[in-house]
Amino acid sequence: MKLQNDLILRAAKRLPTERTPIWIMRQAGRYLPEYRAVRAKHDFLTMCKTPELASEVTIQPVDIIGVDAAIIFSDILVIPEAMGMHLEMNEGKGPVFTSPIKTKDDVLKLKDPDPSKDLKFVLDAISLTKKELNGRVPVIGFAGAPWTILTYMVEGQGSKSFSKVKKLVYGNPELAHSLLEKITKATAAYLSAQIEAGASIVQIFDTWAGILSPRDYQVFAMRYVQQLISEIKRLQGPASTEKDTPIIYFPKGVHYLMHELKEVGADAISVDWTLELEKVRRKIGDKVAIQGNLDPTVLYAEPSFIKREARKVLESFGKGHGHIFNLGHGILPDIDPANVKVLVNYVKEESKSFHH
Amino acid sequence: MKLQNDLILRAAKRLPTERTPIWIMRQAGRYLPEYRAVRAKHDFLTMCKTPELASEVTIQPVDIIGVDAAIIFSDILVIPEAMGMHLEMNEGKGPVFTSPIKTKDDVLKLKDPDPSKDLKFVLDAISLTKKELNGRVPVIGFAGAPWTILTYMVEGQGSKSFSKVKKLVYGNPELAHSLLEKITKATAAYLSAQIEAGASIVQIFDTWAGILSPRDYQVFAMRYVQQLISEIKRLQGPASTEKDTPIIYFPKGVHYLMHELKEVGADAISVDWTLELEKVRRKIGDKVAIQGNLDPTVLYAEPSFIKREARKVLESFGKGHGHIFNLGHGILPDIDPANVKVLVNYVKEESKSFHH
Fold first, then answer.
1. Core-most of A109, A245, B283, B333, by most CB within 10 Å?
2. ipTM of the complex
3. How far is B317 from chain A (nearest CA, A)?
4. Per-domain residue ranges of chain A
5. Could you tell me where the DSSP H helices lie in A159-198?
């Protein structure tokens, strides 16, 4: 089953493409009426855990919006759940761990999940999606970065002050490190299994990377991403750098350490809209591809404004290869899908002139 | 009434000091049992609007913690309230505007407040505090930056996605600019009146500066701060740059445009813990003083850890003048006051060696 559209794979390797590929973070989601129709009948976790449902909503944006890749519908918290934590859906607040990690015993009790058993539903969803897509676009697999997963495991849910996780890190760094090691190991096996199941590219979401100081980010976050990526590459076995499955790393809110970030092992770095692609490219674009970075709220505006802002993003990256167009963060649930189509069509057409 | 401790004023002007001055953002607040005792008897807005109560909690951290300045107890939202918006306290969620700004009519209806009437309670609180302090430390006045105030006026309260304010900015920039003009004018008169009433230094809080792209930050936020500061300096009348009331600007989350920021007119720029003081100083320290930037959650840790991290902040700024020690953001309500004392005493003692 040869891929008819491998633009994102080539862009992630900084190989020549005819135009800039585009996909949208959280593209399978609440802004689509077609998604809401499925969601009305099933709860969120059931959707994650039923390959047919997950696959259905994964493919929707390919059909409806025309994006260049299909990110598997899932949640980053399935990993801690597979490690033994109890995950509950708290309507309106998102998934919550009712017994967050507090002590060394809590960490010791966590198990090393076997993806082929404990996370089979994700792997099945990927295989099924790949089959259904029949080569139209690649499937993107994903997981949370170790630091972000640890944050959820310790806070129990999102937070404003992140006081619990900071208490752990500052008060008991050894425990934080042992937990990070466990998560890294589990995530490496999980992402490798996703690749095995048919994901042609994977993204690591480090949603809470930006709450740390640069020094702590290096110690508690970046180091484990580096370890995670090298473990995935090792598990994939020997391959030419150009051929192995591309990995995108998204350290949300990180604006420092660009020189270190280009050595993290990722093929592409995803950045938010507070960074200028031009500058990021000057710092790291000779070594890694760059993904991003339209402000998601631009999609609230008129089509002419959306096009103007999309053009600014294309111009900021400039001519040449190695750019994957995306938002700087997840799409908001009350965005009009028509505006997303405007964006996707515009980027597909206008980016051509940036590639010759 | 001569000031016995004017360290913060000198540091803000990059003049020689014997040691680094320190104060704590939101130092008059919930982490202090003495504050909670007052708060138990009065609601938040009553405390803001009763000079005796505001003054009492303003002075508490000077007595209890030993900080080098007393920031007046108030709220940045008193300005929109004085402009005619209805402010309500929503317990647990903070102050809320029940009818946020939506249309041109809403903006036209706003009035130009007269600080000596509409905000007299703040001015009285400042005068009273100054009298009570009797020259022990300077009083810090403050206001929100125009962009941050506009954000609250349009969102009605804090937000995660800031969709309403982004819709306004992207969909109707003219309306945003006319509102920003109004806020800037009102805030200039307000801060000037605070200085008149006895504030020896003022801080402008731009809490939501970081939600914008660098370009939009310049257009919608920085430009108005520049306008605000030059208007305050104009209203103060001719004075030598060294003598006029110092202004600190805190653009939370802004990590770009440092070269432009040093031209904003502020005497000091306050930065959060995701920036390295060393680098900030290299970029702007020849022109403005720098305030910051300990991660507030460090105060959860053991005294030895707090001292180590405080030392890193001192070392990161390095030897010389022009540093005001502070947290990188507001103190958290569940911090132990004993830890704050550890920090303040440590900085007072250890910073001496950085000043000769």
1. A245
2. 0.87
3. 15
4. 7-354
5. 163-171, 173-197
